[in-house]
Each structure stands twice: as structure tokens, then as C-alpha cells.
């Protein structure tokens, strides 16, 4: 029965995933550019605390937005697994697990998750290969940014200021808009689904 529900609903799943992904992009951008950047002072906990006290409403709004962001992220992970498991169930499950772990160890695992999703999307046949490639590039950018931050903070900051995460935003926005506007090629998805079921 669960298989039949997933089989009959790829377009609906794609639309819901697109809406949630759109919120994640907006909330994440808001929290990074308009909350943390205004409140957090690098290497100065006292100044950060003072900023939070002075901007309590902004802090609460950003915190609430990110809490909902995390809840949406769980739903997006499940929906993407349902959409992409006909391509490769094992990689799809790995991508969703890494996606969840990404918040524990920042963007390193998130970068691997994006790369895994890019691989699945590129191979799917029912989502554009271009978006798959963009997601793979986004994963690489996350990884480079994260390792630079850990290994040499000054270089990490320079890369961030140079816009190394811009491709990540472009990839996320592209996937979001495609899921919202186009969804998936249902005939191609159905063929992949049948192949997956037959292979079990």
C-alpha cells in the first residue's frame, strides 16, 4: 500500500517539496544575512550577547524561522527520497541521511548530500540533468567552503565573501522552481518505479 501511494503521487510530492524548499531558501537566507550577520560578532561572545539583548525581536524571529526551517528540512528529505528512490534506493537513502547529519557537522555532510542528490537527479531521466549538475557543483562548493573554514579560517572567510556559496543558492532555487512549476515527468518516473519494483 505505501508503494502504491508513492507511485500515484510523484507530481504532488514534487509540488510540496518545491514549496518547502522555497521556504528553506528564504528562511536560511534571512537567518544568515539579516539575523546572524547583524547579531553575531566573531570571537566576541560579550558583543554578540549585547547585540542579541538589543535586538531581541530580530533574534526571536530568526530563531523561529530556523526552527521551522529544520522541520521543513525533514519533510523535504522524505519527499526527495520518495521521488528519487526509483533511481537508486541506496544512494537516495544515503543522501537523506547525510542531509540530516549536515546540521550536526555543518556543511560538510550537507555538501555530500547535495552531491548525492545531484547524481540521482542527473541519472533520473524525469528531472533535468542541468539541475543535477548544479546540485553537484553546489555540493562541491559547500565542501570547499567548509574545509577552508576548518583548515584556514581566513581563506574560508575570503571564499565566503567572494561568493563561493552563490552556486548553492542558484542550484537550490533552480530545483525549487522546477519542482514548483514543472514537477517530474510522470511517465518517466513511472517507468523508473516499475523497474525498481521489478528488481526487488
How would you characterize the overall build of this protein?
The model is unreliable at 1-6 (pLDDT under 50). The chain has ten helices and no strands. α5 (89-101) packs antiparallel against α6 and α7 (129-151) packs antiparallel against α8 (153-161). It has one domain. The protein has 200 residues and is mainly alpha-helical. The chain has helices spanning 2-8, 10-39, 45-54, 56-84, 89-101, 107-124, 129-151, 153-161, 166-181, 186-199. The longest helix has 30 residues, at 10-39.
Q: Estimate the global geometry from the Cα principal axes.
A: elongated
Through-space gap between termini: 16 Å
Strand-residue fraction? under 5%
User: Percent of residues in helical segments?
Assistant: over 70%
Give the integer mean of the pLDDT values: 84
As residue ranges, the low-confidence spans are: 1-6
Largest sheet: none
Structural class by secondary-structure content: mainly alpha
Taking all Cα atoms into account, the compactness measure Rg is 18 Å
SS element count, helices: 10
The count of domains is 1
Q: In total, how many beta strands?
A: 0
What series of H and E elements makes up the topology?
Answer: HHHHHHHHHH
Amino acid at each position: 500500500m505505501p508503494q502504491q501511494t508513492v507511485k500515484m503521487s510523484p507530481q504532488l510530492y514534487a509540488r510540496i517539496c518545491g514549496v518547502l524548499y522555497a521556504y528553506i531558501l528564504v528562511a536560511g537566507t534571512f537567518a544568515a544575512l539579516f539575523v546572524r550577520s547583524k547579531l553575531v560578532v566573531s570571537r566576541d561572545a560579550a558583543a554578540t550577547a549585547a547585540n542579541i539583548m538589543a535586538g531581541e525581536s530580530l533574534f526571536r524571529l530568526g530563531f523561529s524561522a530556523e526552527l521551522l526551517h529544520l522541520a521543513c528540512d525533514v519533510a523535504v528529505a522524505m519527499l526527495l527520497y520518495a521521488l528519487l528512490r526509483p533511481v537508486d534506493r541506496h544512494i537516495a537513502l544515503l543522501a537523506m541521511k547525510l542531509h540530516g547529519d549536515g546540521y550536526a557537522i555543518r556543511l560538510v555532510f550537507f555538501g555530500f548530500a547535495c552531491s548525492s542528490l545531484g547524481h540521482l537527479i542527473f541519472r533520473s531521466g524525469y528531472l533535468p540533468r542541468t539541475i543535477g549538475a548544479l546540485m553537484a557543483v553546489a555540493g562541491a562548493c559547500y565542501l570547499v567552503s567548509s574545509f577552508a573554514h576548518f583548515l584556514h579560517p581566513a581563506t574560508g572567510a575570503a571564499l565566503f565573501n567572494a561568493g563561493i556559496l552563490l552556486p548553492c543558492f542558484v542550484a537550490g532555487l533552480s530545483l525549487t522552481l522546477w519542482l514548483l512549476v514543472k514537477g517530474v515527468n510522470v511517465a518517466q518516473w513511472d517507468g523508473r518505479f516499475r523497474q525498481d519494483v521489478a528488481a526487488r
